[in-house]
Amino acid sequence: MRDEYDFNKARRGAVIASPGKTRITIMLDDDVIEHFRAQAEVEGIGYQTLINALLRKALTGSGKSKANDKPLTAATLRRILREELHTS
């Protein structure tokens, strides 16, 4: 292994996309992130995976038909996250 490497002409490679996933930026409160990180650590999964599972559960609902589903709004997301924080 060399002591020094020359990266002057280096370029960042393309990021490999995950099929069926889209990278987004979302602003969440610090306490919400801390909650999901702690819960994810207990469950042994990533916190983003946990948030995704919770959102999927909210989208599919329990026993709701697809015809009656409404789009997930920011207000609904906030309500869901608050409910989950209070149940823990």
What is the helix/strand order? HHH
User: Roughly what fraction of the amino acids lie in strands?
Assistant: under 5%
Distance between the termini: 50 Å
Radius of gyration: 19 Å
Q: What is the strand tally?
A: 0
What class would the helix/strand composition place it in? mainly alpha
Count of DSSP H/I helices: 3
- Spans of at least 5 consecutive residues with low confidence: none
Q: Percentage of helical residues?
A: 40-55%
Which word captures the global form?
Answer: elongated
Report the average pLDDT across residues. Answer: 84
For the largest beta-sheet, the strand count, sense and barrel status come to:
none
What does this structure look like?
The protein has 88 residues and is an all-alpha fold. The chain is built from 3 helices and no strands. It has helices at 30-43, 47-60, 74-87.
List keywords for this structure.
single chain; 3 helices; 48% helix; 0% strand
Layout: helices, strands, pairs:
Blueprint: H1 30-43, H2 47-60, H3 74-87
Task: Give a brief description.
The chain is mostly helical and 88 residues long. Helices cover 48% and strands 0% of the residues.
